[in-house]
Amino acid sequence: MRLKRVLTYTVLILGAIIMLLPFYWMVSTSFKAPQEVLSMPPKWFPSALNFNNYIDAMKSAPFGMFFFNSVLVAIFNTVLQIVTAALAGYAFARLDFKFKNAFFLFFLGTMMIPMEVILVPNYMLLKYLGMHNTYLALIIPWAASVFGIFLVRQFVLSLPKELFESAEIDGCTHWQILWKIVFPSAKPVFISVGIFSLIGSWNSFLWPLIMTDSESMRTIPVGLAYFSAEFSTRYHLMMAAAVLSILPIILIYFFAQKQFVEGIATSGIKN
Amino acid sequence: MRRPAETRTAVFFLLPAFAVIFLFHVIPAFYAWYISFFKFDNLSPMIFTGLSNYARLLKDEMFWKSLFNTFYFAAGTIPLSIIISVFIAVLLNQKIRGLSFFRTAYFLPVITSMNAVAMVWLWIFQPDIGLLNYILGFFGVSRINWLMDPVWAMPAVIMVSVWKNIGYNIIIFLVGLQTIPGEYYEAAQLDGAGDMQTFKHVTWPLLMPTVFFVTLISLINSFHTFTQIYMLTPDGGPLKSTSVIVFYLYENAFKNFDMGYASAISFVVFLITFVLTVLQNKFWGSKIHYGN
Questions:
Q1: Across the interface, do B227 and A206 touch by the CB < 8 Å criterion?
Q2: Which stretch of DSSP H or E encloses residue B196?
């Protein structure tokens, strides 16, 4: 049915335009000269590529520092969450110990704790420990992901028992089994966990907003928030800053598209 | 068949995750409950005030307004988002050329930081020289003050939130659609069912578990909404029309340094999301069909 095809593509393309238009507008405005930005009717194309907007934006706030902070925290969070999930997930799936079920339920229960509830207490705790306004405040409390533990446990449970039995007969320790046997075949699961941790950490806002004070400790989202408040009407600068901050994740997405989508898809199914 | 060495290994394997979760999630959760009975600002000594924070909550108009705003936000974003994403997912589930392009287009808002995209939406919502009013002008719509209008501020926030999240729901629904066995569609075709009928009797019922899942997650996430409010309406909006519950909590804790009170608010959030989860399970659970 040709009509159906035409309608389908029309709707999809219209939708895609609505999704992408703000991004085009962001990039386009970021290259406009200040007066061009204010012109009415709005100009769809900048008359020239004003790269100075980007230079000015980077001079007005230490985006390099923000970027470094975000990357550092994201990497640590992701690696730590994967490692703790691997260890705990394996333990719940393959080890036998007292109170195993109770512990598992305990972990599951903690998933119900909203971040907002622990915001103020952690603020107090981290200040008390002298960790406030340091990387530790952004990393340590999020070094473990119960969701990751859940995913790894599911995966390990799905592996054939013979795999483990023959390894154990060969005298492998659990540590060796985990890293030499489970880890290589668990790549999709770990990528899932990793993607979630990465996106979660990268886009985290309220937590770093509260747990940092100085400009040098700000992550990109927090840096953008302050930038937005300070340069609120200088749209050419605002847009340059915004483009700078989304570029890294867009690049990563283009290189790891499949993993991104698979990560979301596998974790989205809680059958 | 329990071996003592396994317990030792288990302790070693579980300790990191357990330590982090216990110290920074569980203990703080209990502590939050404890401090909700005090008045303090993290500088002067804590003063025990019993239930007065909770009594104050009940009388606090701004608290109830924030709750209302949150439900308004949820009611605005969830049905709209689900309807649009199911529709798009169904379209994308056919043999489409350029699937990768469409997937990228719909997914880009999801992976980019809310702080960054909120900045361009601030610009788009600008009443005099912003893109939205300009485009709406072609349809005869008169100038709307968007983020500065008590009536339109929340719809603006809803618009941004739906835009940002649709791609995520589309992926989830695409997976859900792909779990529907082809035989059902074939059977429907043999019975002479048109597209609408197939959707109504095959697709939608079998998609229900996924819809239930997305609704539940979205509802709970509504009670965690903060970033777009802070970026688009840093003061909680005109007449506080966009001050959702987490925003109100943030203002009390870190602008007024009324931390005991903020903790009480956080507990109400905890309670509500907990009850919602239980209710959702009960209500939707009975409506899930598994093949007719």
A1: yes
A2: helix B195-198
